[in-house]
Fold:
Amino acid sequence: TRAPLSPECTETQARDAQHHLHPFTDTKALNAKNARVIERAKGIYIWDSEGNRMIDGMAGLWCVNLGYGRPELAEVAAEQMNQLPYYNTFFQTTTHPAAKLAEQIAALTPGDLNHVFFANSGSEAIDTVIRMVRRYWEVVGKPWRKILISRENAYHGSTLGGVSLGGMGGMHAQGTPMLPGIEHIRQPYWYGEAAEGQSEEEFALECAKALEDRILEVGPDNVAAFVGEPIQGAGGVIVPPPGYWKEIQRICKKYDILLVADEVICGFGRTGQWFGSQTLGIEPDLMSMAKGLSSGYQPISAVAVGDRVANALIEDGGEFNHGFTYSGHPVAAAVALENIRILRDEGIIEKVGADTGPYFQQQLRERVGQHPLVGHIEGTGLVAGMALVKSKEPKAFFGKDQDAGTVCRDHCFSNGLVMRACGNRMVLSPPLIISREQIDEMIDLILVCLDKTE
Ligand code: PLP
Structure:
């Protein structure tokens, strides 16, 4: 039995309610109020079927880095579909766009990440990472190195591999059991979890030490890799305090543990450089990426693999029994290439790093940081998270049953802004083409919605 459709719902809403199971959605609750139909988009704005215009403060799901409505991407997709809409890269074949995109990713990524494996989503990239690092240790004669260590409240996707590696308690509780061989350590969330009076630097070292403690607990020779987002995204935009990544890397090196940066959100300009690893000073052995790789115009993801791992797999691994029908899909690859060309030719990422990113961070702290509901703001470039609190001084968080985040998100939605709630943290990640004037417009709306949330 289904909830009766509301009399004013449109045809699309009725179809949707009757047949569409949405991801991460309480379908019954959604059907009671109808899904909002998003119909078109341009630049940083989206429009729904009732003609309401909204600023997309989330760039879709942290992915439309280039903004909406770039005809060049549609044109290369059409050209590629006419030329060669599909061919696989499994059976001794490749395609022009797949080879060229692999070369470009190798050139853009830091260090010796010279080799690229393609998939379709961030989750598949993470599944690839899990299998690839374990395979690496098998090939180099240490097949007992199986354990991957990640962090509580990390998000690494929704496939069985991604959800198991991620640290989202609510996800782990459903569809159990999760994959074995995965460990989680505490997250470096200073504002929310540091002891009273603890400096950011002290807290950073304490959180990194949790990695060393866990490595020693499970046995250093059993650990394959540590995986982390340079800045946690879906966990609420949590920027690790200074010193954290340096210490994590020291520990990984000490015990010869591979380091994987999950750049699905941070990659392709979000932090003001091409990759979050560059902003945060990380030198990973492998890097997963998706979202901004094509600005969401096509589903495509990749794992960039450093020489150490790739050379072992190539020289001694034989066939790696892993891949997806659409690995290196020519249309998706062509669109990603055009996306990268535009990001580069128009200096979009440089502008985020030097101008709009710092401006956004400064305006948020100066204007939004004053609001009584906002306890703390963190972020860099064009990604930010803010903690909604019951009281700033003394610091008091909302209880689990007090859903200020959802209330605020709903006010945003009705007032022309898409801002997402991760619990009681509000997060923002607008398209990278946002101008200073549009940042001002977005912040004006945030203030209106925070006032309504009080
Ligand atoms: N890794 C990170 C850091 C992510 O933020 C996400 C998605 O938000 C994923 C992996 C999973 O990507 P997808 O939803 O494309 O499977």
Remarks:
- Residues 121-123, 126, 155-158, 162, 229, 233-234, 262, 264-265, 290 surround pyridoxal-5'-phosphate (CB under 6 Å).
